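Bumping my old thread because nobody answered last time. Still need a sequence for this structure:
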């Protein structure tokens, strides 16, 4: 894991003051708005406004009028309509929303979700054949279809019209469909380009339901639209922010049996549902259906009106998620083994790995974990026995993976996606050429600075600001997500009071103190063996502050994103080293000698550390870690004096290499009188007789 650079954002104090006064908000909120580029009162008001009046006219999206007309024609004529969706959460929620709306209109509707393992992404000729067999004369794609030129043409040759609704990047040519609804079309006048697939479906339903029924459309579907938008990691700005905000309130109080059952089975029914709850707890369970099982099962979850059936499906999705986690860990271990064996790994700026029959429903998650671990773009490809490789790509902010794949398209069967996530198909005979090409692109394009992970810190706060008042203030900025991240705060000089492992030492809860104020903070995905600090030491933290509600009781929750040794502690240790150097050179004055003269309790604490049952006879530690003893932090110079005295008296042997100490305890019979130490005698003489 690369060490992350902390970047504390600077604000124009005049702008902060203007926002604070013009909006009547706290200084913290004003700074957070400023950090998001909302430097005028009007921009900030527009951002904070989450009413339905902020939604755009859906007819501004190209071909929306054609899509509405063709679907209305099918509904009126009793044509059979097949909704073709994708197997991820965005596709599942898109399918569910449109199916519920059309069946509510009395339409004859089927839905088709391709099997990830057998069919892969997107519509195929085989799928078109099956849809023809069921008697459909209209296909409506959701969250897919923008690159299905040949497949749409094939459907047309069979007498089947297609309405494409999608949000993925458009290529030069569009399918010859009855309508191609995508806000990213080059001819689009739609003001907001970053709708999720389910967001495009929502706009379609709004267009069909007319403006006067907008409130009902929101009441009926906004919860699922918010769920899919968050799960697809779309930027929560602009219209997405409005849609998600409207949907979140409906998720918490949802009457949908499927959503209620999922929340209950995931164990969050008594907690506040936030965007992170959906993204990290609920969405993975829905995604698991498409990754290791059947995505139709997830659609059924959102469509059923039977609470018992909903609970049964939710339980099966949770089990599928458990299986997914096991398979994910297995593939990750294999991927890491490949990386360790690759002598050239450090020479390149993108990870490209291939394996035989890796579960390609899971390699996307593993790719994401590799990108997080190494802060590099990553591509994982799984080849089947026929030599066809399905790949998942994840990227970092400074590298557009979709554009990179475009430059390598001669070696690919197909590809699609976004700047940060994409999929591809490549044949084995073209793999090495593709790998060489994408390595060359990444190596030439990415700089060392691009590959240095950063944490953008919104502002520094005092520990006293970690309060319910601050939490309630910053909730004005919700929902958080891509494009509108949860605020990150810097808090310095916190003393570690306690370290408590959670969930079998997968996570840590720290008790931290600043002055007389003590609070708990959580460090997720971090074991006690990975945490190199001890009780009594000081750390600085970057953290999120949130509201945790459980069984109706609300409290402030601090989640640590990163930590490091406190600058105050570093400075203190450097002063201690300088004092020790002056001591060895005979340059200490009487006041300094008094300050570093060890007390009896210091010797006892050091000796007990070495004689504890948990400590081996020979102990290697850094002076920093050793300076924290049971009774509290020990100044560096005083610690070194204790060790020198104990070595002088034959109690231990010590080897010093820079900041590292190797200590061997000698087992001595009887008591040792430390007052006989020449070192102590000389130090006391200097302290009290100078």
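Sorry it took so long. Here it is:
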């Amino acid at each position: 894991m690369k060490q992350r650079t902390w970047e504390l954002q600077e604000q124009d104090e005049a702008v902060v003051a203007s926002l604070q006064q013009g909006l009547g908000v706290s200084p913290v909120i004003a700074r957070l708005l400023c950090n998001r580029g909302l430097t005028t009162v009007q921009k900030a008001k527009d951002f904070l406004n989450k009413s339905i009046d902020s939604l755009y006219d859906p007819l501004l999206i190209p071909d929306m009028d054609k899509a509405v007309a063709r679907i209305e024609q099918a509904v009126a004529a009793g044509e059979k309509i097949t909704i073709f969706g994708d197997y991820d959460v965005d596709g599942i929620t898109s399918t569910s929303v449109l199916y519920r709306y059309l069946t509510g209109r009395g339409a004859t509707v089927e839905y088709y979700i391709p099997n990830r393992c057998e069919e892969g992404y997107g519509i195929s000729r085989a799928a078109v054949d099956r849809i023809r067999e069921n008697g459909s004369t209209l296909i409506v794609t959701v969250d897919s279809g923008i690159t299905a030129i040949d497949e749409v043409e094939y459907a047309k040759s069979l007498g089947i019209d297609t309405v494409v609704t999608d949000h993925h990047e458009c290529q030069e040519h569009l399918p010859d469909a009855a309508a191609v609804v995508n806000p990213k079309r080059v001819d689009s006048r739609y003001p907001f380009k970053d709708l999720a697939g389910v967001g495009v479906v929502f706009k379609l339903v709004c267009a069909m339901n007319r403006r006067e029924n907008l409130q009902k459309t929101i009441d009926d579907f906004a919860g699922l639209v918010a769920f899919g938008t968050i799960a697809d990691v779309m930027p929560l700005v602009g219209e997405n922010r409005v849609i998600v905000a409207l949907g979140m309130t409906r998720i918490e109080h949802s009457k949908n049996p499927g959503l209620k059952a999922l929340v209950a089975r995931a164990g969050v029914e008594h907690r506040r549902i936030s965007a992170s709850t959906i993204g990290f707890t609920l969405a993975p369970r829905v995604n698991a259906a498409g990754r290791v099982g059947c995505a139709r099962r997830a659609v059924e979850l959102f469509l059923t009106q039977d609470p018992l059936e909903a609970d049964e499906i939710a339980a099966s999705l949770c089990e599928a998620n458990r299986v997914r986690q096991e398979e994910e860990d297995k593939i990750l271990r294999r991927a890491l083994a490949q990386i360790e064996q690759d002598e050239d790994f450090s020479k390149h700026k993108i990870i490209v790995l291939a394996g035989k029959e890796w579960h390609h429903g899971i390699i996307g998650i593993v790719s994401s974990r590799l990108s997080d671990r190494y802060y590099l773009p990553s591509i994982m490809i799984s080849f089947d026995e026929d030599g066809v490789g399905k790949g998942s790509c994840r990227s970092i902010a400074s590298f557009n993976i979709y554009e990179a794949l475009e430059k390598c398209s001669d070696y690919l069967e197909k590809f699609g996606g976004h700047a940060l996530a994409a999929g591809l198909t490549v044949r084995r005979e073209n793999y090495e050429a593709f790998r060489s090409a994408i390595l060359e692109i990444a190596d030439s394009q990415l700089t060392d600075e691009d590959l240095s992970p950063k944490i953008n810190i919104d502002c520094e706060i005092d520990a006293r600001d970690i309060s319910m008042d601050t939490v309630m203030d910053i909730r004005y900025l919700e929902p958080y997500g891509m494009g509108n991240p949860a605020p990150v705060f810097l808090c310095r000089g916190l003393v570690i009071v306690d370290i408590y492992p959670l969930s079998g030492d997968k996570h840590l809860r720290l008790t931290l103190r600043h002055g007389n104020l003590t609070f708990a903070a959580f460090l997720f995905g971090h074991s006690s063996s990975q945490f190199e600090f001890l009780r009594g030491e000081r750390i600085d933290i970057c953290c999120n502050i949130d509201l945790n509600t459980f069984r109706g009781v609300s409290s402030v929750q601090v989640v640590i994103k990163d930590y490091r040794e406190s600058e105050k502690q570093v400075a203190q240790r450097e002063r201690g080293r300088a004092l020790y150097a002056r001591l060895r050179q005979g340059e200490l004055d009487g006041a300094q000698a008094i300050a570093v003269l060890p007390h009896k309790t210091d010797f006892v604490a050091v000796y007990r550390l070495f004689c504890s049952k948990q400590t081996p006879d020979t102990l290697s530690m850094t002076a920093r870690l050793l300076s924290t003893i049971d009774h509290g932090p020990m100044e560096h110079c005083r610690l070194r004096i204790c060790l020198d005295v104990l070595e002088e008296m034959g109690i231990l042997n010590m080897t010093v290499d820079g900041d590292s100490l190797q200590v061997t305890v000698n087992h001595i019979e009887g008591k040792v009188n430390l007052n006989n130490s020449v070192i102590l005698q000389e130090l006391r003489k200097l302290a009290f007789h100078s």
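The longest helix spans residues 307-341. Let me know if any region looks off to you.
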